Automatic annotation (TrEMBL), chain A:
Key words of the record: ATP-binding, Nucleotide-binding, Transport
Pfam families according to UniProt: ABC_tran
Organism: Streptomyces macrolidinus
InterPro entries with a match to the protein in the record: AAA+_ATPase, ABC_transporter-like_ATP-bd, ABC_transpr_LolD-like, MacB-like_ATP-bd, P-loop_NTPase
GO molecular function, one term: ATP binding
Coiled-coil annotated residue ranges, if any: none
Residues in ABC transporter domain copies: 9-229
Protein name in UniProt: ABC transporter ATP-binding protein
From TrEMBL, chain B:
Signal peptide start and end residues: none
Species assigned in the record: Streptomyces macrolidinus
Keyword Transmembrane tagged: yes
Major localization listed first in the record, in broad terms: membrane
Protein name per the record: ABC transporter permease
Keyword Transmembrane belongs to the record: yes
Listed PANTHER family: BLL1001 PROTEIN, MEMBRANE COMPONENT OF PREDICTED ABC SUPERFAMILY METABOLITE UPTAKE TRANSPORTER
Localization (cell): Cell membrane
Residue ranges constituting the ABC3 transporter permease C-terminal domain according to the UniProt record: 207-321, 663-774
Topology versus the membrane: Multi-pass membrane protein
Native organism taxonomy: Bacteria, Bacillati, Actinomycetota, Actinomycetes, Kitasatosporales
A Pfam family this chain is assigned to: FtsX
Amino acid sequence: MTPPPGSLLTAENLYKAYGPTNALDGAGFSIHPGEVVAIMGPSGSGKSTLLHCLAGIVTPDSGTITYDGRVLSSMSDTERSALRRSEFGFVFQFGQLVPELTCVENVALPLRLNGTPRKEAERTALSWMQRLEVDDLRGKRPGEVSGGQGQRVAIARALVTGPRVVFADEPTGALDSLNGERVMELLTEAARSTNAAVVLVTHEARVAAYSDREIVVRDGKSRDMERAV
Amino acid sequence: MNVRQWARDLRMGARFAFTGGREGWIRVLLTAVGVGLGVALLLLTTAVPSVLSARDQRSDARADYPDRYGHEQPAKADDTLLIAKLDTTYHDQDIRGRLVQPDGPRATLAPGLTKYPAAGDMVVSPALKELLESGEGKLLRERIPYRVVGTIGESGLVGSRELAYYAGADDLDQHRDNWQVARLDGFGGTEQMSERMDPVLILLVVVVLVALLMPVAVFIAAAVRFGGERRDRRLAALRLVGSDSRMTHRIAAGEALAGALLGLVFGTVFFLIGRQAVGSVEIQGISVFPGDLNPTPVLAACVALAVPAAAVLVTLFALRGVVIEPLGVVRTAKPARRRLWWRLLLPLVGLAMLYPMFGQGRDNGDFNKLLVIGGVLLLLAGVTALLPWFVEAVVGRLGGGGVAWQLAVRRLQLSSGSAARSVNGIAVAVAGAIALQMFFAGIESDYTSQTRYDLDRAQMSVTIPAGTPLAPVTEKFAAVKGVRKVTALGVGSAGDKSWRTGEGPDNMAQIAIGDCAALRDVAALPSCHDGDVFALDVSWNDEDTKALAKPGRTLHLGDSEVSGKALDVKWTVPQGLRHARAVKDANGMERGGFLMTPSALPAQAVRAISGEFYLSLDESVPDVKERVRNAALAADPFANMTVWTSSEESTKFVAVRKGLLVGATCVLLLIGASLLVSQLEQLRERKKLLSALVAFGTRRRTLSLSVLWQTAVPVALGLLLASVVGLTLGMVLLKMSRTPLSVHWSSVLSMAGIGAGVVLLVTLLSLPPLLRLMRPDGLRTE
């Protein structure tokens, strides 16, 4: 099966099992540049596993994932790490900021991992923090900021390298509704401003509402809400 | 606050420890394993008195010849036994050997034996049996060729790995005059010489004990804090439902108490397992029987009480700076700055306690043990108190570097306390070891004497009792591969009266018989031919030789070792007697008396002449010394061999040093294991974060390096501080024993190197789990 025309990231017939549990059972996916796609489904349905496979974090047992014409499963771990460093960004439920680094150092971390000199990396990081309205937290450590502030710092960190795809796994799961909405606004706005695609895993309809398209995952199988896959 | 409230909170905490699901269990298990290791080592220490006493008792019970020397020996009877001491050495291991010949069927039985072996048979210790049956024991089998017919029981051995045998003989009567043969009517029960131990050695033993036990205590204190960060977050939930800050602390202490109590159980199990395994282990030539390892009840009770109490106190102390708020957030970002003054106070008070004993030396050296223990404890405790401040002060000033360095430094800046805590144990051990090594090196010369042997001329000497012809023995030695030169001398005595009279001669002189080449090793001979006799001119006053060296005078040749029954051969000092100047022989001695070439000795006197052989060896030939021993014992079972060394150490000094090495090995193993456990614990706590870092493309190498830096920086600082405190304590000890001060940098470097090596090993061992934790699977929540 050929990927839909113009798609940036596609997955076909993904299978992944953890022991006796089939986390993915023939799931598929596609996303275009600048598009926001929400992956929805109940707890344990396999949506996070699908995200991890799409991001090259986990290798599926079978199936094909193609990113920008390249087959992810044929890439080595080092190549996939380099891809994640330069082309992908990540936001997790609890931010997963490095507790010992200050907020600006956290945001600058992906750039530094790519070899950008420290000062330049922190300058770029600060500009992203300004866009996400958290530049006043630059010297604080994650333990000193609120959950919503931490998630905004995490979004800045996800976008700082100018990724083409941002993977967000329950980015508002630990926030109240007001903070959650603000975080989603900032994430989608910032992604659209850079034409980055966003793969959003959530089980909340109000969060999914920020997406252009929804895919529902149930028992490891995916179903596109607009067109059947 | 009252006792009931305390008990209720502690109980609640203990319950939480076991009801926290998998996470909680893992934390309790890690704590218990850590505490258990420490408890096992403490129990081992409390068993040392029983081990020593059991070893002494068995050693006394089997005492035979050497302790009875000088005592009047019983007459031959139904219950007596002829015994000969044939101790030997094989590959630097001592072997206790006895030849036995019962005088009658009721002959007194040696401990550990059910009956005596027949001539040509032997009963051996289990370790010797193993050695003889192994490939390594090939040469030993030649030396002890008897047939193995049984094993010596536990009551006949000092340690489980002792090498010993009793071989049956039927010709000991013929060697009755030999000093190695004695007649017994019972074993043991001899009067022990109660010798007061040198105060400096007592000081050393006290310091060794403190220096070895202190790191164990420090480690236990660290182990009860395993998993503290995660627990603190959990405790926030308790605040939310209404527990106040102090209640929360007590509940946390209850959790630690549960871990410590489980640790006591684990420690006992570890100890019992180790106790069974100990029988097959030998460290530094010391082995013990499992049955001897019985903890002293009072000391064991102290351990059982002190460990849980320490768990509670340490947790309360650790939590005093942690703010647990009801909203589930523990704001630990900016802890209060550590103060230096009270940390400095500990080592200063320690020094003050030791100061009064400066210069006491060993003359009046009644060192106040309590002051010594207190002073050394406080000095070493100073390391644990100063290290967190020192690490914080230094890492606070660090910056720059790559991502790995930045991650490590920032982590250390945020939680320098836990980093310092994990290094504390090793720092204390290294400080103690440096001090002790310095002390050992300083006083070594007092307990080591230089031997007089000339190692350039010979490396081994063999003596053969009188009666064995020397020429065949010399040939045997010369045939051994690796023997370069054999110098053989017959040795006897010449006296002015018969050796058979009760008192023996009034004047006596040594005679040495050898060919001209051998005689030239002991004297500067003008010329030499077979048949020549020389009287030796010596640098010391040898009146006896002067009196005897008169041509025409009749002298009595015999053996000064065995009077009474000795041979007595008359010999007339020849008219052609010449004088020669004695020179130092390979033994480092200047001989007096007469030198004779072989044909000058009356044929009948040969039986009164014992043999001395000096052997120059090519030590690169494998087992050359063992082959020489075999050749010597084949020539005469009563041959005595000495391997020459340039110095000899006092046996008690060596024993204390061995004790330190055995203890230090155990402590380093414990600390290594504990570091590994604490490292794994820290990694486990960061599993999710590590996975997230890998998810967004962090290289594994970067994370591994960051872990290495996180360990290496505090370790380097810990070792630096340990070196300073160790050197200070070393100097204090030297001052106390009035020994000239000198810094032994090699001790400092080797101890610091061993400490660093342990840390490096632990880091290497923790890399595989680190790599596993870095798998993206860590991000999974279901």
